[in-house]
């Protein structure tokens, strides 16, 4: 397993995303349609066995059930397990980033996770009603209170970064990294200023949705309407924009290159992210321990290849 520094802490290049523990993301309409507690615990066990030490969740995932499932797993595996894994959660998707709400939510997350401190905490989305300086003050207070070790930002734009990360007189730069959606089909951050801002401001980058909701698995024929009853169909609000003829052609190219290297399309798409020079850790999800192991194994075993990486990368990112 490759480990990289995130806020000075060693994290595995793969992080286990727990968005589908007990539901599908933060959708209240899809509660109960994700992994059961037993299935989630099996995934967590396999992740640790593979060397993954970072688990990513949020207070709104399955209305808190994701955190509760992780908390039950930690409690059942003994105190030593808490020393082996790092827990990351998020706040602000519902209720905003006002100080009172942030402090109440972090306590709820800590209680559900059955831990005293969150290793990482993110502002889930920007809050137009709360100035970034106020958000920074709240997060710094959480660190001083011992509730959080490091904190970052999710689902942000370049303008958000320039507003909230630039040093204030006499104050530290607290936000350490960005967690945005990024994959072979959704590379907006490569040309909308986010990656440029990260580089100039010294922020790290931990992308989520490495398979574009399953499009990069190669199991969908990207034509006609999005099929009902599928994971991508359940979250068409997130992925409908990627359902295009151009991306259909890109997936076919990925499948051909993956076959040439004896990999699955998912494995090669994740390998590409591992070798993106700006990526620290990639949030990966899976429906089963076997899927998780295959993805991590395939993405790890293919050596670095600049030619292959560039051949998969959209022209707009090769600047």
From TrEMBL:
GO terms for cellular component: cytosol. One of its GO terms (molecular function) is oxidoreductase activity. The keyword Oxidoreductase applies. InterPro entries: AKR, AKR_Detox_Biosynth, NAD(P)_OxRdtase_dom_sf, NADP_OxRdtase_dom. Pfam families: Aldo_ket_red (PF00248). CDD domains: AKR_SF. Residues 33-309 form the NADP-dependent oxidoreductase domain. The keyword Hydrolase does not apply. It comes from the Bacteria. Keywords: Oxidoreductase. This is Oxidoreductase. The lineage of its organism: Bacteria, Pseudomonadati, Myxococcota, Myxococcia, Myxococcales.
């Amino acid at each position: 397993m490759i480990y990289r520094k995130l806020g000075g802490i060693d994290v595995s290049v793969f992080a286990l995303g727990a968005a589908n523990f007990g539901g599908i993301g933060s959708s209240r309409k899809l509660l109960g349609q994700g992994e059961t507690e037993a299935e989630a615990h099996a995934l967590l066990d396999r992740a640790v066995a593979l060397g993954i030490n970072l688990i990513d969740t949020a207070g709104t995932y399955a209305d808190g059930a994701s955190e509760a499932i992780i908390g039950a797993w930690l409690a059942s595996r003994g105190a030593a397990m808490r020393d082996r894994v790092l827990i990351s959660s998020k706040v602000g998707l519902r209720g905003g980033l006002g100080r009172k709400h942030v402090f109440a939510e972090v306590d709820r997350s800590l209680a559900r996770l059955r831990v005293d401190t969150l290793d990482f905490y993110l502002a889930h989305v920007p809050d137009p009603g709360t100035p970034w300086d106020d958000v920074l003050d709240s997060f710094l207070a959480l660190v001083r209170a011992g509730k959080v070790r490091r904190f970052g930002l999710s689902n942000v734009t370049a303008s958000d970064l320039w507003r909230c990360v630039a040093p204030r007189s006499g104050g530290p730069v607290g936000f350490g990294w960005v967690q945005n959606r990024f994959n072979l089909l959704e590379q907006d951050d490569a040309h909308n200023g986010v990656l440029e801002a990260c580089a100039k401001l010294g922020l790290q980058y931990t992308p989520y949705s490495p398979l574009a909701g399953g499009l990069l698995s190669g199991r969908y024929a990207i034509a006609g309407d999005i099929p009902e009853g599928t994971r991508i169909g359940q979250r068409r609000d997130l992925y409908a924009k990627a359902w295009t003829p151009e991306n259909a052609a890109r997936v076919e190219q990925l499948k051909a290159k993956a076959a040439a290297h004896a990999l699955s399309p998912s494995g090669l798409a994740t390998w590409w992210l591992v070798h993106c020079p700006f990526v620290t850790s990639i949030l990966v999800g899976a429906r089963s321990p076997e899927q998780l192991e295959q993805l991590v194994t395939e993405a790890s075993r293919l050596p670095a290849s600049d030619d292959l990486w560039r051949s998969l990368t959209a022209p707009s990112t090769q600047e």
